[in-house]
Design a protein that fits this description.
Oligomer: single chain
Order of helices and strands: HHHH
Shape: elongated
Radius of gyration: 17 Å
Strand content: under 5%
Number of helices: 4
Distance between the termini: 31 Å
Number of strands: 0
Amino acid sequence: MVFYLSLREIRKLDDNIMKAGFFFISFFGLFLVLTFVFFSLNLYSGEIQGTHFTVFYYFAWIFIAFSVSSAYLGYTMPGWFKNLIGKVYS
């Protein structure tokens, strides 16, 4: 839901820096959902294989890292990130 609503709001904005922020917020929602998908896949494939940790477990933690970084960049918009986006769009 966050993914869809953020992408919908991007179309209404004129400022490129705010568009980039909403873009990262939308990816936060997508990565968060994928985290739970991979943890579920780990649970089911671990039962089939008889192990506790499968490759899906590590993918889930990678998506947690992506989720946290995209939430940080999208919500806080640090100065260095604004400068970087300003240089890209100018």
